[in-house]
Amino acid sequence: MAHGHYEAKIGPSILNSDLGALADECQRMMDSGADYLHLDVMDGHFVPNLTFGHPVVQCLRKKIPTAFFDMHMMVANPEKWINDMADAKADQYTFHAEATDDAKNVIRLIKEAGMKAGIGIKPGTPVDVVFPYLEDVDMVLVMTVEPGFGGQKFMADMMSKVQKLRSMYKSLDIEIDGGVGPANIDVAAEAGANMIVSGTAVVKSDNPRQVIHNLRSTVQEYMCLPKGELER
């Protein structure tokens, strides 16, 4: 786990963009001030939908050499795709705790492949499932919708998981994903989330730069508040 204070980072979910012009859309998001790109990989097994795999990531990397690629691996057998994603020059490999019986080994393999390791949990999974791995991962992803489909409503009750993680680890990167936008960024930032995945609210906006700026500014505001202010 990384030490030091955490930063506010906004990562557009490119699954909500024009997939026929994916590289251009990714570049548009980076030009709009995105801190990273959130790439959803679905295998049709762990979740019902099917998206794209490492060949697409490899092509995107050639077009966008410097962007941080946060791979959200909604896949069964997450260890199977680690080396392929590393070869495609992905930066972070976030797998689901529910997809493996040996998360420790998956984390080790990700690190050995030269990527950062993230572990994610679905809404129905208790947050304490990830507790044994918090010293080993770079990030925890708390899903605020059921993974596999876009356009779902943000689950505010998931913020208790974020609050628990933040109370335990002041410098841990905590990511939320699903239905996040200007309407609910305050509750997410107050809970302690610092990596904000936003799909429709950013990608479909007429002014994505402004939306990204507003999301980041809100997180930064809550980061600067004294502890007493947050508890009011």
Strand and helix layout:
Layout: E1 9-12, H1 22-31, E2 37-42, H2 54-63, E3 69-74, H3 82-87, E4 92-96, H4 103-112, E5 116-121, E6 139-143, H5 159-168, E7 173-177, H6 185-191, E8 195-198, H7 200-203, H8 208-224, H9 227-230
Parallel strand pairs: 1-8, 2-3, 3-4, 4-5, 5-6, 6-7, 7-8
Helix pairs in contact: 5-6, 6-8
Give me the number of helical elements. Answer: 9
- End-to-end separation: 30 Å
Tell me the fraction of residues in β-strands, as a range: 15-25%
Largest sheet features: 8 strands, parallel
DSSP E strands, number? 8
Can you give the helix content as a percent range?
Answer: 25-40%
> Overall mean pLDDT score?
93
Uncertain segments: none
Strand order of the largest sheet: 1-8-7-6-5-4-3-2
Q: What class do helices, strands and sheet pairing give?
A: alpha/beta
Shape: globular
| Rg result | 16 Å
Helix and strand pattern: EHEHEHEHEEHEHEHHH
Question: Which descriptors would you attach to this protein?
Answer:
about 230 residues, alpha/beta, 8 strands, globular
Please provide a written account of the structure.
- With about 230 residues, this protein is of the alpha/beta class.
- The protein is globular and about 40 Å long.
- About 35% of the residues lie in helices and about 20% in strands.
- It has helices spanning about 20-30, 55-65, 80-85, 105-110, 160-170, 185-190, 200-205, 210-225, 225-230, and strands at about 10, 35-40, 70-75, 90-95, 115-120, 140-145, 175, 195-200.
- The protein is built from nine helices and eight strands.
